[in-house]
Amino acid sequence: MSKAQVVNGIKTFIPLENNPEVLSHLCRNLGLAPGLTFHDVLSTSPDLLSWIPRPIHALILLVDKPIYNAARSAVIPKIPEYQDSGPDEPVFWIKQTIGHACGLMALLHCVFNLDGGRYLMPESTLGNLLKCAIELEPTERAQLLYDSEFLEEAHMDAASKGSSTPPSPHDENHHHFIGFVQKDGQVWELNGGMNGPLCRGMLDGEDLLSERGLALTVQDFLDAAVKGGYGEISIVAIAGIGVSGSL
Length: 247
Description:
The protein is of the alpha+beta class. The chain is 32% helix and 17% strand. The protein contains 9 helices and 8 strands. The protein has helices at residues 20-30, 46-49, 65-72, 102-113, 125-134, 138-146, 149-159, 211-215, 219-228, and strands at 5-7, 10-12, 37-40, 58-64, 175-183, 186-190, 198-202, 233-239. A 6-stranded antiparallel sheet has the order 3-8-4-5-6-7, with helices on both faces. A two-stranded antiparallel ribbon has the order 1-2. Strand 1 and strand 2 form a beta hairpin. The radius of gyration is 17 Å and the shape is globular. The N and C termini lie far apart (41 Å).
């Protein structure tokens, strides 16, 4: 298994692929409880979404940098630097300080917040890490993840399982991962590369693959791709215990 490398003074991973097999493998490495399944969203057409188990309360999005910049360059400066900590946070968020770790961060943001964190085994390494992180201020919380050999090993092993040849940590990363989670009716955009979590709005009895759910999550990026005429987009839906064939 490859090891992380220090690039320009920063611990740097091999980027993940955004596909169900890699994300499922990473979940096993992290010791998550059974129940999560991952599904490629090949189209946002209602007909083509019908085969995905519903409801969907978490999405992982991968986009090219030009799409990301077009969709978020005006938003990012308006997000204040996150200062919260403790169990009363409306959503759990962590700053990314590891290079090329945005795929891991997107998955962690999803599983830490999805369904009340029910997929974390209470006495597991990841469960204990979250328990410690909740009480820390944002800088110390990010450092806890940065120093975790467990997360490094889990990520680097999963990153080697993709369908393409894994790049070097020294290679430039041309993509961004973003996690979206529906929690207590609110839709959150969770990106460790921004200043903090971004509340996108409320859903009432709908999930993230509904028309409004898509509007609050990936639609900005889809529109930017169409307008710019460029770029790669990959969307993976995360289904949990108790899903059915329809809403």
